[in-house]
Design brief:
This protein is α/β, with parallel strands linked by helices. The protein has one domain: 3-Layer(aba) Sandwich (Rossmann fold), CATH 3.40.50.880. Helix content is 26%, strand content 24%. The strands form two sheets. Strands 1, 2, 3, 4, 6, 7, 9, 10, 11 and 12 form a ten-stranded mixed beta sheet that branches. A two-stranded antiparallel sheet has the order 5-8. Strand 11 and strand 12 form a beta hairpin. Helix 3 crosses helix 5. It is globular. The protein starts with a strand and ends with a helix.
């Protein structure tokens, strides 16, 4: 039986269909569920083993990106999310979904309701839409088990992607190996623009929690699950599209 994936959307979400396609291609059974449905019937989440919060501009990114969506989840679904995590299920947040998970406190330390990091406006003050190279670090992350210590290329498209935290939090992230992805120049993590498109501290492009089952990243893996998704696909021999690994790893871990 194919694992069931809940693709959670709300007003302003616009990457849900791409996320459905990526999970289908990886062998999953995804369903788009609206936040309104989940608030109306909180048992809807029970049959699912993976929860995905896709990209977009939820609620117009008013106040701060992902803030309103995170407040809705904290106010109406905190217990359901805690139970979902305690059952050993997986959660992934992509771009706006990453912003939601950080606002909610699920990342980086799974402290729902207690925010311990932030995603700030890009240092460039521009919306950054480009392909970037990242180094996949050794970490507990379930979603990157197939590609640890590899270099990958994905697209970013965001205005608030700068990972920020105080020194103590950053040190804890490093000690626990929670910085899953780093913007890189060659093989070296970098703060240099445009290779680091937003100025993220420690060049962090993605974070997981200590269990490795909650994961958020600013780049869009769902936008590179076919070779022809890459802008230079005709001029190079591509291995398996880099984005597909994330979804396949998740499916494999829950089968």
């Amino acid at each position: 039986m194919k694992p069931r994936i809940c693709i959670l959307k709300t007003d302003g979400t616009n990457c849900d269909q791409e996320t459905v396609y990526a999970f289908q291609k990886a062998g999953g059974n995804p369903t788009i569920v609206s936040l309104h449905q989940l608030k109306t019937d909180k048992k809807i989440l029970q049959p699912y083993t993976i929860l995905a919060i896709p990209g977009g501009f939820s609620y117009g990114d008013d106040i701060a990106s992902g803030k309103v969506f995170a407040l809705e989840l904290a106010l109406h679904l905190k217990e359901q999310l805690q139970l979902f995590v305690e059952r050993g299920n997986l959660i992934i947040g992509i771009c706006n979904g990453f912003q939601v998970l950080v606002q909610l406190g699920l990342l980086p330390f799974n402290t729902i309701g207690l925010k311990q990091a932030a995603l700030l406006h890009n240092d460039s003050a521009y919306f950054e839409c480009r392909w970037v190279t990242m180094a996949v670090q050794k970490s507990p992350c379930i979603f990157t088990q197939q590609i640890e210590n590899k270099l990958i290329t994905l697209q970013v498209a965001h205005g608030e992607g700068k990972v920020y935290a105080d020194d103590a939090t950053l040190e804890r992230i490093e000690q626990m190996n929670l910085g899953v992805l780093r913007y890189s120049l060659g093989t070296i993590p970098t703060q240099e623009y445009p290779y680091n498109p937003n100025g993220s501290l420690h060049a962090i492009a993605g974070l997981c929690d200590p269990t490795g089952r909650i994961f958020g990243l600013m780049p869009h893996p769902e936008r590179f699950v076919e070779p022809y998704h890459h802008p230079n696909w005709r001029n190079q021999t591509l291995r398996k599209p880099d984005g597909l690994f994330f979804f396949e790893s998740a499916i494999a871990s829950v089968q």
